Amino acid sequence: MSDEFSSNSLEKLDQFINSNPEPRELKRALAVQMLTQGVKRKKIQEILGVSAPFISKWKVRYAWEGLEGLKLKHRGSRGYLSKRDRIFDSVSGAQSR
Questions:
Q1: Distance between CA atoms of 17 and 20, rounded to whole angstroms?
Q2: For residue range 39-53, what is the model confidence (pLDDT) as tens digits?
Q3: I need a surface site. Which of 27, 43, 76, 85 has the fewest CB within 10 A?
Q4: Residues 36-62, buried b or exposed e (16+ Cβ, 10 A)?
């Protein structure tokens, strides 16, 4: 398994895990890391509380996209206030303090 990934990409994976990412990203990264270390899938499932398809999905995603493949893609929704309303809201909030 570890032959599939370069030592540089595995080093970046370690750095990412140590950077304290968002919990869902951490679980994905740990599953991939454990696979590269030769941990059996069944053991990974027990330790992380994940399914076999979860492990396969993130292994493939990491192989194709690298670290970016493990990260959340959601960027939030668009705000409801117009630029003018946001400026007014911030000005009126500052005046009421």
A1: 6
A2: 999 999 999 999 999
A3: 76
A4: beeeebeebeeebebeeebbeebbebb
SS3 content of the chain, % helix, strand, coil (to 5): 70, 0, 30
For residue 57, the one-letter residue type is K
User: Do residues 52 and 41 make contact, with C-beta atoms less than 8 angstroms apart?
Assistant: yes
Closest CA to 63 of 3, 1, 2, 5: 5
Cα–Cα distance for residue pair 58/53, rounded to 1 Å: 9
Residue among 26, 48, 44, 27 at smallest CA distance from 35: 44
